[in-house]
Write a structure and sequence with these properties.
Elements (H helix, E strand, L loop, with lengths): L1 H29 L5 H7 L5 H14 L7 H7 L5 H14 L7 H7 L5 H14 L7 H7 L5 H14 L7 H7 L5 H14 L3
Helix pairs in contact: 2-3, 3-5, 4-5, 5-7, 6-7, 7-9, 8-9, 9-11, 10-11
Length: 196
Amino acid sequence: MKAQLRWKILVPAGLGILLVVIIILVVTNRGEGPSVSSLIGKLKDPDESVRAAAAKALGERGGAAKEAVPALGEALEDPNAKVRHQAVKALSKIGAAEKSAVPVLAALLKDSDRGVRYHAAKTLAKIGRDATPAVAALTKALADRDPEIRYYVVKSLGHIGPDAQPAVPALKEALRDADPQVRTMAASALKKIGRL
């Protein structure tokens, strides 16, 4: 009788512990979503909304998605503006844009989508000196009609430093920009380049 009673107590207790373990596993894994490698594969999906969502999800992973940088670099040349926008934004959030992405980022400074241009300029600013091959494109982008884009373009040139010498005449023009933040950043960039 005692053995039967112990059995009746142990089984429910064991099931209770198992249930708690299952709940903990479900709750802790709920926010993870698809793996980084799965999202990288989705960047090649024929549906543009799937590609854009995958790029966005990779950006939300931040530094944990560093392995996606080459695939996101390829996505910068996607024919769809939303995909390019999310890819450049993801690279900026991951903080691992590579020197190899600089030519594509420089070309995106001329993109018709404002968000793509903005995030390309912002990402080039994060790359710093390794963005030197983009100096000519950045100099042209100083004429962008959006002051936020001009701000990050000027910031990029300042972070490049002395190698941004060819941009000095355009940066001196930026000292008279209509936007006060662009003017302030232009003065800072010229100091970093060594021309003020």
